[in-house]
Structures are given as structure tokens and as C-alpha cells.
Amino acid sequence: MTVVGPFGLSVRDQALEADVQTGLAAVEAGLLDATKSEVPFITEAAQHLVRAGGKRFRPLLVMLAAQFGDPYAPGVVPSAVVVELTHLATLYHDDVMDEAEVRRGVASANARWGNSVAVLTGDFLFARASHILADLGPEAVRIQAEAFERLVTGQILETAGPRDGRDPVDHYLDVIGGKTGSLIAVSGRFGAMMSGADESVTDILTQYGERLGVAFQLADDVLDIASDSHESGKTPGTDLREGIPTLPVLRLREQAARHGRAEDLALVELLEGDLTDDARHAEALAGLRAHPALEQARRDTVRYAEEARAMLGPLPGCSAKAALEELCDAVVHRAG
């Protein structure tokens, strides 16, 4: 058994491990190349998060999906670079919106250079991703454009909040389906499509990626509450401090509304107050960590991961399929 990729994913097939490791190394080189500019400052800002590391979850999924066709096909690595560049670009923008100070264990770009530089650097990465896409053909451009539209729509829906009468949990799941699920779905789709896999296989891996993406974000929601900064690479409770209602908070509100327990209502009131105060923030974080709502959010994570696993059923048994199944376990494991 060897280890490759994020979360200590184990790969038991030496040929598969070699393919994935070689592919990810090529993606890393492609990311550095794509973030170079004739202007040294732009290179420094654009490579800030690339060099900080990261899970490379989306490129890993591209590499595994490509195993169902020709993993050495020329479009596989560039498509993986595209999805990771797009993801990185959204991180620059997210950190500005959230006023985050830490990302991947280093100072966020906005904390280091200011909001304007961070926003423009994200735009620069989007431009570079588009440049690579142009060489992958009009279908790839269309797929990426649709995913990007979903991603932005998810962000807008999060900002706007649920419309009157809409269940907040359902609204939130739609939000993260767009913000996170869409690009991870494209990762599975690009890997299969660029490798020349059958259309039915491409469809399966797209749907798998969508569900896995939601599970991945829900696991992040749990980590934001339950982990320390060493585990998550960012300050715990960042979403709490910014007033962003992630799933544990929504499940708490749901239970408070349904049962009316005094302790639940008190915790909701605390969460809806000013959490820029460190003492109140710490109290809110401790309250959520001890509340059953956090465990319910973990169960939601498991449910989506199991849906992703079920999507793989029609695929032929092989090492790549086993690795994709294990990826579901690894995502759940992150949520505890």
C-alpha cells in the first residue's frame, strides 16, 4: 500500500500510483508555468497560493477519472491545471469577501497586499485558465463556462440568502452544489472526456464528482467548527466570525425552531450577535462543538459521500474505481 494525493489516499496498484503521481507532478509544473508573468510582482502574487500547497483534490480526481480511457491523452494534464487554476482564483476572491487573514497556513493575499491586488490576481488566474481552455476545444470551453456560471450563481445565492418560505438547509445545499460541486463535477468530467472514455462513463464520473463535491464542502463546514488551524490551514470559526451560516449553524437553528430548548435558543442568539469579539467567538465555537447539530452535519456529509459511492456502481471493477470509492471514505474521515 502506498499513499498519494490528499488525505493520505492509499493506492494499491503500482501502475495506477505511478500514473497519478506523474500526472500530479505535471499539473504542479503546469500551475507554476501558468502563473508566471513578465511582471515579477504578478508572478509573486499569482504563485502565492500555488506555492502554499493545497490538497490538489480536483487534479487528483481528473487523474483518476482519466484511468477509464487513455490517461496519457494530451488534454488530461492541461484540463487538471484549468480546474485547479479556477479553484485558486476563487480562493483569492473568497478571502476578500470573507476578509480572511490566513489561507493554507500562510497570510492570505488580501492580508498581504490588499483587496485590490487579491481581486485582480484572481482575475489573472481566470484569464490564464481561459487561455489553456482555448486549446482544449469549444466543448471544454462550454463546460467550463457553465460550471463557472453555476459557481458564481452559488456565491450570489449565498450572499442573497434564501427567499421567503424556502428551507434554509435546502437553499444552502443548492449554494454549495454551485460553489463547490460544480467544479469538482467538471474535474470528473474533464478527466473522463479528455481521456476518451465512453460517454456513459463520463456522465457517471460527472455525477459522482457533483455529490463528492457537496460532501467535500460539508466536511469543510465541520472542520471549520471542529478543527484547529493546524488541521484546516485557516483560522477556526472563520465562517462564524463572518456571519456565514454553514450547515452546523443551520442545523442548530432548525433544532432550536423545532424544539424550542432554552440552551439552543441561547446559542442561536449568541451566534447572531457580534462575533468579532474574541471571547464571544470562542464561546460560540465551544457551544457548537458540543452541540448535536455538529454531529448531524457529519451525518449529512456521510450521506452525500455514500451517494457519490453509489454512482460508481455501473463502472467496471478496477484499481481506479477502488481509489474513487476510497476517496469517498477519505472525505468523510476529514469530518471526523
Could you please describe the fold and organization of this structure?
By secondary structure, the chain is mainly alpha-helical. 73% of the residues lie in helices and 2% in strands. It has 17 helices and 4 strands. The strands form 2 sheets. Strands 1-2 form a two-stranded antiparallel ribbon. Strands 3-4 form a two-stranded antiparallel sheet. Strand 1 (2-3) and strand 2 form a beta hairpin. Helix 4 packs across helix 9. The chain is globular and about 60 Å long. The model has no long low-confidence stretch (mean pLDDT 90).
- Secondary structural class: mainly alpha
Sheet bearing the most strands, described? 2 strands, antiparallel
- Average per-residue pLDDT, rounded, comes to 90
Quaternary organization: single chain
Topology as a string of helices (H) and strands (E): EEHHHHHEEHHHHHHHHHHHH
Total helical segments: 17
Could you list the spans in which at least 5 consecutive residues all have pLDDT below 50?
none
Number of strands: 4
User: What Rg is obtained from the alpha carbons, in whole angstroms?
Assistant: 20 Å
The best one-word shape is globular
Summary?
The chain has 336 residues and is an all-alpha fold. It has helices at residues 14-34, 40-46, 48-51, 57-65, 76-98, 109-113, 115-134, 138-160, 168-194, 199-226, 229-232, 238-241, 247-259, 262-271, 278-289, 292-311, 319-334; strands at 2-3, 10-11, 102-103, 106-107.
